[in-house]
């Protein structure tokens, strides 16, 4: 099934809808400076408490993803009291990151003591038992990075936990835990699946949608340039370039 642009070129798209779509993504991911520039350019309104909230969530995300979990826990308790008490899965994941920090630093005795005081109580719940066994197994290896559980030490794992924490904080504040853009792509995917089931193979795809929509997204490509940690010990630096319609955003994190 081919989709001829003539079928939808006449459909008007409200600029405010596009602005809200982009703003939702930027706010969710705590790109505060970019949000401020975008608001200035578009004339949109954004309350100061939203900007303050973004700055706090950004700090929490970076602390969690960069290995300072204790600070992330402290700030989370300040911003979203009782969140971790109610969300035991997230609390376990954050505490496990702290355990991983200690193991990675070869502080095995301290890691064991931390596990006994903070993680052992989770062992009373069956769903945490296997996870606890995986984490504790790291102590058995002289080089845990080469163990079968090496993924628990990865940046990818820390980023996933940090992202879940960010989403949980938003939900705790009665805000959407995912961006409007995520929802849009999810809905497009479901529509495509339904069309495929009813009409057979459908050529419509996410890439097709992104390329053919005049206003919503010309491209949703992310180009990341990463400078590795240098000899001077400076942190890695990431630059992301986003193209949305006639807007271009350069985000540094």
Question: In the CATH hierarchy, what is the architecture at level 2?
Answer: Alpha Horseshoe
Q: Catalogue the unreliable spans.
A: 211-253
The ordered string of helix (H) and strand (E) elements is HHHHHHHHHHHEEE
**Largest sheet, if any?**
3 strands, antiparallel
CATH fold-level name: Serine Threonine Protein Phosphatase 5, Tetratricopeptide repeat
Secondary-structure content class:
mainly alpha
**Rg on CA atoms, Å:** 22 Å
Assembly state of the chains shown: single chain
For the record, the count of structural domains works out to 1
By DSSP (H or I, 4+ residues per run), the number of helices equals: 11
What percentage of amino acids are in beta strands?
5-15%
Taking all residues together, what is the mean pLDDT?
78
Termini separation comes to: 41 Å
In helices, the fraction of residues equals: 55-70%
InterPro entries: CRA_dom, CTLH/CRA, CTLH_C, LisH, Ubq-SigPath_Reg
Protein name: Glucose-induced degradation protein 8 isoform X1
Explain what this protein looks like in three dimensions.
It holds the Pfam family CTLH. Residues 53-110 form the CTLH domain. This is Glucose-induced degradation protein 8 isoform X1. The protein has 253 residues and is mainly α. The protein has a single domain, classed as Serine Threonine Protein Phosphatase 5, Tetratricopeptide repeat (Alpha Horseshoe), CATH 1.25.40. The chain contains eleven helices and three strands. The protein has a three-stranded antiparallel beta sheet, with no helix packed on it. Strand 2 (237-244) and strand 3 form a beta hairpin. It is globular.
């Amino acid at each position: 099934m081919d989709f001829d642009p003539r079928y939808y070129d006449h459909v008007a798209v409200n600029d405010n809808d596009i602005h809200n779509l982009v703003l939702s993504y930027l706010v969710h991911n705590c790109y505060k400076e970019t949000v401020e520039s975008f608001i200035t350019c578009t004339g949109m309104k954004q309350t100061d408490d939203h900007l303050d909230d973004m700055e706090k969530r950004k700090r929490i995300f970076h602390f969690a993803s960069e290995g300072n979990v204790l600070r992330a826990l402290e700030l989370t308790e300040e911003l979203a009291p009782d969140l971790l008490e109610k969300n035991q899965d997230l609390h376990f994941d954050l505490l496990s990151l702290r355990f991983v920090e200690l193991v990675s630093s070869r502080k095995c005795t301290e890691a064991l003591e931390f596990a006994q005081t903070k993680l052992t109580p989770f062992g009373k719940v069956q769903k945490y038992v296997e996870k606890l066994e995986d984490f504790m197994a790291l102590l058995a290896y002289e080089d845990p990075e080469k163990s079968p559980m090496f993924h628990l030490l990865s940046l990818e794992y820390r980023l996933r936990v940090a992202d879940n924490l960010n989403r949980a904080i938003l939900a705790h504040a009665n805000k959407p835990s995912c961006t409007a853009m995520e929802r849009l792509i999810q809905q497009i995917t479901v529509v495509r699946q339904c069309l495929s089931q009813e009409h057979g193979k459908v050529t419509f795809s996410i890439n097709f949608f992104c390329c053919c929509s005049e206003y919503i997204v010309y491209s949703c490509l992310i180009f990341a340039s990463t400078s590795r940690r240098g000899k001077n010990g400076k942190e890695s630096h990431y630059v992301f370039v986003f193209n949305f319609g006639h807007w271009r955003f350069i985000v540094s994190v």
